[in-house]
C-alpha cells in the first residue's frame, strides 16, 4: 500500500478535510486504497489509511472461517444450563446473575445502551474510525465468538463513511474503552447519532438506511465483544506514532537551522563522538544534523582560529541527545503498539483449543504507559526548541543579530511575541506530561478496582502533538528570518531550501506585520510534511 501522510487532526473540521482528501499534498485518491484485515491484525499504516484517509476495509476468507468456528462454540454454550460469563450471565459486578435465554438479546442490547454513556466534546472522526477498525480487527481473529454478520456490519459502516458520535469522557481504559466503543456499537444497532460521509449529524438509523445497510440485532456475547478492548487508546497511539516520526525529523531540521543561524559548532555532531555513546536515536539525530548543515557557508565562516567560542549552549550542542532520546522512546512505543495491533482483546475469549476463558487482556496499562511516556518526550523536545527560539531573539546571545530579529528594534518588536506563544505552549505541554496512567478510580462496585486511564493518556498526547507542531513551526519561522539576516553569508543547501519553502508562505525580514496568520501557515507546512520534504529534496531521506 502507498504510504499516506497527514497531520494529526486537532479539530473535527480538519478531520473531515483529511477524510475528504483535502489535507495532505500528494494523496490523490485515498478512498481508492483498500486495507485487508485478517487473523494477523493490522499495522500502524493500516490504521492511518482507514482512520485518516477513508481507505476501505476488506475481510479475508480465513477470518470468516475462524469466526464461524468460534461462533458455533458460543451457540453450544448458550444452550448449556450451566452459566457462562458474557453468554448467559450479567456483566461486571453482575457476573453471577444467570440470564434466561429469552432475555439474552435484550441483555446484549441493554449492555450497549447503558454503556453508551459518554459526555463532553465530540472526538475527531479519525479517532472514531481508528477504534472501529481496531475493534473489527479483534473480531476477525476468531477469538471473540461473534457472528460473521456482526463483523461485516462494522466493515460496512467504515466503508460507508458513517462515523458514530463519540464523546471525550467515558473510558477508564480498563474493561476496554467501554463508553466510546459502546457508542460505536449503538450506531451499528441503528441507535444514537452519527455523522454521514459528508459530516452531517443524523440519527444512526437514517444513515444506515441511506447507505443501504441494516441494523444489527445482537446475539449472545456480541454486545460484550463489541465494547471490550483497548481500541480507542490504541488507535490514537497509532496515529500519534505516525505523526511523531515526521515531527522528530522536523525537530532536527529546526535545530540545524538554529545552530547555523546562531553560528554554532557542527563539530559536536561528528559520527565518532556519537559512537562513544551508542544510543541509536542519538546517532540518527546527529547524522541528520551533519547532513542538514553540510556545505554551509555560514558554518564555514566561523571555523577559523579567530573563533574563540569553546562550547555552545545545551539547546544547540545537546540536540541529538534530546531528540535521540525521544526517538528511542518512540521506537519503544512503536513496539508496544505493534504487539497490541496483533492482539485479540476480549473477555471472555475463545481459545484455539475451544475453551471460553475470562482474562485481563482488556487492561490498557501497556498502551497507557507508552502514551504517557511519549507526552513526556514531546514536552521536552518542544522545551528545547523554544529555548533555541529565545536565543535567536536575544541580542546578548544571538551573536550579532538584531534584537528580536526586528527591522527597527524599538519601533518594531519583530518576533518577540512569537516566542511568548511558544513559551505558553511549552508550559501547557509540561502539564500534559503529567502521567494519566498513575491514577486509578475503582468502578463497578469494586469489581473493576484498578483501571489504566489510557484513553485520557491518549487524548492528552493528541493535544501535546499539536502543541509540538506549533512550537517547531515558530522555531523554523524564526530561524528562517535569522538566516536571512546573516546575509551576505549564505545558508547551506538544505537549510536554504527550508528557508525558501517558508518564504512561500511568509515574507522575509521587514517592518512588523500581523504575525498570527504567518505562524499558522508555517504550522501547516510542518504538519503536512512540507518542511521535511523541502530539506529532503537536498539531503535525501532523513532519519
Strand and helix map with partners:
Blueprint: H1 12-19, E1 34-37, H2 44-53, E2 56-59, H3 61-78, H4 104-115, E3 119-122, H5 125-139, H6 148-159, E4 163-164, E5 167-169, H7 178-188, E6 193-195, E7 201-203, H8 204-210, H9 222-227, H10 231-261, H11 271-275, H12 280-292, H13 297-301, H14 314-317, H15 319-341, E8 349-350, E9 356-357, H16 365-393, H17 416-432, H18 454-485, H19 493-503, H20 516-528, H21 530-539
Parallel strand pairs: 1-2
Antiparallel strand pairs: 3-5, 4-6, 6-7, 8-9
Helix pairs in contact: 2-5, 2-10, 4-7, 5-6, 5-10, 10-12, 10-15, 10-16, 10-18, 12-15, 15-16, 16-17, 16-18, 17-18, 18-19, 18-20, 19-21
Task: Write up this protein.
This protein has 21 helices and nine strands. The protein has helices at 12-19, 44-53, 61-78, 104-115, 125-139, 148-159, 178-188, 204-210, 222-227, 231-261, 271-275, 280-292, 297-301, 314-317, 319-341, 365-393, 416-432, 454-485, 493-503, 516-528, 530-539, and strands at 34-37, 56-59, 119-122, 163-164, 167-169, 193-195, 201-203, 349-350, 356-357. The strands form four sheets. A three-stranded antiparallel beta sheet has the order 4-6-7.
Question: What features would you highlight for this structure?
Answer:
single chain, 543 residues, mainly alpha, three-stranded antiparallel β-sheet, two-stranded parallel ribbon, 9 strands, disordered N terminus
Amino acid at each position: 500500500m502507498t504510504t499516506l501522510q497527514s497531520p494529526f487532526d486537532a479539530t473535527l473540521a480538519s478531520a473531515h478535510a483529511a477524510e475528504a482528501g483535502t489535507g495532505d499534498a500528494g494523496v490523490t485518491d485515498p478512498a481508492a486504497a483498500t486495507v485487508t484485515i485478517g487473523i494477523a491484525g493490522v499495522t500502524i499504516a493500516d490504521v492511518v489509511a482507514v482512520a485518516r484517509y477513508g481507505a476501505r476495509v476488506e475481510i479475508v476468507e480465513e477470518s470468516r472461517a475462524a469466526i464461524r468456528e468460534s461462533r458455533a462454540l458460543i451457540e453450544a454454550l448458550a444452550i448449556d444450563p450451566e452459566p457462562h460469563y458474557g453468554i448467559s450471565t450479567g456483566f461486571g459486578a453482575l457476573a453471577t446473575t444467570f440470564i434466561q435465554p429469552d432475555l439474552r438479546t435484550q441483555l446484549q442490547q441493554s449492555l450497549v445502551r447503558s454503556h453508551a454513556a459518554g459526555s463532553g466534546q465530540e472526538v475527531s472522526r479519525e479517532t472514531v474510525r481508528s477504534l472501529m477498525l481496531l475493534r473489527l480487527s479483534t473480531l476477525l481473529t476468531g477469538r471473540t465468538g461473534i457472528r460473521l454478520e456482526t463483523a461485516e456490519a462494522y466493515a460496512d459502516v467504515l466503508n460507508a463513511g458513517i462515523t458514530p458520535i463519540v464523546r471525550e469522557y467515558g473510558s477508564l481504559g480498563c474493561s476496554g474503552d467501554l463508553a466510546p466503543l459502546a457508542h460505536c456499537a449503538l450506531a451499528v444497532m441503528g441507535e444514537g447519532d452519527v455523522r454521514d460521509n459528508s459530516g452531517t449529524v443524523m440519527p444512526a438509523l437514517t444513515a444506515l438506511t441511506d447507505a443501504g445497510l441494516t441494523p444489527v440485532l445482537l446475539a449472545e456475547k456480541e454486545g460484550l465483544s463489541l465494547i471490550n478492548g483497548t481500541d480507542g487508546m490504541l488507535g490514537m497511539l497509532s496515529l500519534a506514532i505516525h505523526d511523531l516520526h515526521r515531527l522528530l525529523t522536523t525537530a532536527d531540521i529546526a535545530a540545524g537551522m538554529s545552530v547555523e543561524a546562531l553560528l554554532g559548532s557542527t563539530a559536536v555532531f561528528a559520527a565518532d563522538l556519537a559512537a562513544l555513546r551508542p544510543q541509536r536515536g542519538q546517532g540518527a539525530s546527529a547524522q541528520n544534523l551533519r547532513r542538514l548543515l553540510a556545505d554551509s557557508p555560514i558554518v564555514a565562516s566561523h571555523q577559523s582560529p579567530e573563533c574563540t567560542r569553546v562550547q555552545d549552549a545545551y539547546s544547540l550542542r545537546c540536540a541529538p541527545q534530546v531528540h535521540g532520546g525521544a526517538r528511542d522512546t518512540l521506537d519503544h512505543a512503536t513496539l508496544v503498539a505493534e504487539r497490541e495491533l496483533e492482539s485479540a482483546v476480549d473477555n471472555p475469549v475463545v481459545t484455539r483449543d475451544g475453551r471460553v476463558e475470562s482474562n485481563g487482556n482488556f487492561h490498557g496499562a501497556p498502551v497507557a504507559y507508552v502514551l504517557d511516556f511519549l507526552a513526556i518526550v514531546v514536552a521536552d523536545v518542544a522545551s528545547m526548541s523554544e529555548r533555541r527560539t529565545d536565543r535567536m531573539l536575544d541580542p546578548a546571545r544571538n551573536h550579532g543579530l538584531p534584537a528580536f530579529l526586528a527591522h527597527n528594534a524599538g519601533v518594531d518588536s519583530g518576533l518577540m511575541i512569537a516566542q511568548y506563544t511558544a513559551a505558553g505552549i511549552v508550559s501547557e505541554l509540561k502539564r500534559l506530561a503529567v502521567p494519566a496512567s498513575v491514577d486509578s478510580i475503582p468502578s463497578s462496585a469494586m469489581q473493576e478496582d484498578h483501571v489504566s486511564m489510557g484513553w485520557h493518556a491518549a487524548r492528552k498526547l493528541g493535544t501535546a502533538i499539536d502543541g509540538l507542531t506549533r512550537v517547531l513551526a515558530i522555531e523554523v519561522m524564526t530561524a528562517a528570518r535569522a538566516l536571512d539576516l546573516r546575509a551576505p553569508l549564505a545558508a547551506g543547501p538544505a537549510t536554504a531550501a527550508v528557508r525558501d519553502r517558508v518564504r512561500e508562505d511568509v515574507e522575509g525580514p521587514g517592518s512588523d506585520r500581523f504575525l498570527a496568520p504567518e505562524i499558522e501557515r508555517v504550522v501547516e507546512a510542518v504538519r503536512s510534511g512540507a518542511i521535511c520534504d523541502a530539506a529532503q529534496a537536498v539531503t535525501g531521506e532523513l532519519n
